[in-house]
Every structure is written in C-alpha cells, then in structure tokens.
Amino acid sequence: MKAPKLxxxxxxxxxxxxxxxxxxxxxxxxxxxxxxxEAAVRINNITSAETAITTPGWxxxxxxxxxxxxxxxxxxTFSMKxxxxxxxxxxxxxxxxxxxxxxxxxxxxxxxxxxxxxxxxTAVRDAGPDNGYRRWLKPYVRSILRDEFGRESTIAVSDPTxxxxxxxxxxxxxxxxxxxxxxxxxQLVTPxxxxxxxxxxxxxxRNRLGNEQQVIRSNIDRAQTERxxxxxxxxxxxxxxxxxxxxxxxxxxxxxxxxxxxARRESDTYRIGKIAEGQAALSAASARAQQLALELxxxxxxxxxxxxxxxxxxxxxxxxxxxxxxEGITIEIKPYADDATPSRxxxxxxxxx
Length: 353
Fold this sequence. Notes:
Tetrahydropterin Synthase, Chain A; 4-stranded mixed β-sheet
C-alpha cells in the first residue's frame, strides 16, 4: 500500500515544521540543566579550556564546540561491608592486623564524602568524565585505615577512646590524599572492632569488670560524699560545742577579771590602810623614841650631875653614902696572906638569907 502524497500547497509548510523541529532539538541540545547537588565541567573542544560549573540551573553550550560532563557533588557514602566487592562504593569489610600480631575487623565501616564543586575540573582531569573520581576511595581508604588502626594493639583498639583517635587520624590522612583529587571526607564512621570468640569474651569480661569498677567508684564517691556530710555535721556540732565553751570561758574570764579587779581594789584599799596605819605607828613610835631619848638624856644629865656632885663631896660623905648602900650587908674578910692588901674579897647579902 502506497503512502498518500501531500498536496502541493502543503509542501512549503513541511519544510517550516522540519526547521522548527531541528531548531528545538538544537536548543534542547544546547541547554544543560544542572540539578542541586551536581557540578559540571564544560570543555572547549577547540581550545581545551575547562570551566567548573557549580551553580544549579540551566547552562548553555555550543554543539560540537563544547562538551559538558555532569558530576555528583552531593554527599555520598562509601561502605565497607560484607565479604565481596560490589562496586566502587560498596566493597568488602575492613580487616586489620594489630601491632601485637592479632587480627580484628569492622563489620560495617562507612565513609561519607563528596566532591568539592569548585574542583570538578581536577576530578575530571584525574579520573575522567562522569563519576570516575569515586575510584580513588577504594585503594586509599583501605590502606590508610589498615595503617592507622594497625598502629594500635588489640587491647588499645578495644578502647573506644583509642580507636576514636585512630579514626580521626585516618580521616585527616584521607583528606590529605584525596583533597588534591577534589574529594573531601566529611565523616568516618567505624563500629566497634570485632575479634575472635575468645577475645570477644575477654572484652565482655573486661567491660563487666569495668562496669563493676564504675559501680565501686560510684560507691566510693557516694561514701566520700557521706563521709564529707558526716564530717560537716561533726564539725558543725563541734563548732557549736566550741562556741558554747568559748562563750562560757569568756563569761568566766569576764567574771574572773571583775573579781580580779575587785580583789585588786580591796588589796589596794587594804594596802593603803595598812600603809597609813604603819605610817601612823611609825610616827607615834618615832615620837615615843624621841620622847624616850629626851627622857634618857635628862636622866643621864641628872645622873651625871649627881655623880659630879658626889665626886666633889668629902670622904666622910662618900663613906656615909656607901654605908647606906651597904646597910644590912655583912662583909667577911679572911686574909690568906701576910699582905696588908687583900687580893680576894667575898661578900654575901645578909638579906638573901
């Protein structure tokens, strides 16, 4: 069956429609839509000039003159899980040999990375068009993680703090080697390392003992707090007792000071009285002594005058006075030698008989 022929009047319009369709196809080929999370590289096929496009939206190109390659610049995940490699972003799990010779592995290691949009030209130049830059992760990630975690011993890497430090070191090294290729690692997630059954049991036992240690420390802290509370209570009670005793002692001291002042006042009064009495007695005694001295002087003068007067009396008067004095006294004289002058005289008082 033959196709119907177009009338002669419709043939000019056919060329117009064909030209319009060709124009639309050319325009569609000349405009490329850059989605959010994408970057693109526009290459001039004549000058080989390369331009990075990081702004989402429509961008133009001249057919046959420009080539545009779009790349995924959104955050992506590189996963190390399982026993086989699946593609560039899904590879087998990470196994590591520790510094003490033992082996351990991570069941699921995740690296979150993305292409730096302003370095899309570098990514295309180093790894080709499309998303060839992803192939840089597979060799670098495995070797660097093995290197960093392999520095630690089995005991050290089982400590979350230690392998967190190794994770940070690995992240820094990955950014050092992948950064020149336009890739930045934003996060590195590593689960707890897995060991053989015996060592896992030892880790569980250590964790159990660690938990018991934490409980013991908590009990010690609680006991310390209780001890400090009891000490504070005892200190408070002792301080109260000390304050009471201090108040009593201060009261006793004040009373003793008052009594001392009173005793001193009485003592001063007594001393002043006694001094006054002594001074009065001394004055009286001095006056009496002076009086006696005067009396003695008068008697002395009288006796002296009497003696002087007696000396001037004749012998008869002296003998008379001597006789008066010796009245009633018998004197017995016995001579013991033919000497007119006796050498020994004994007398007796006849009144004593």
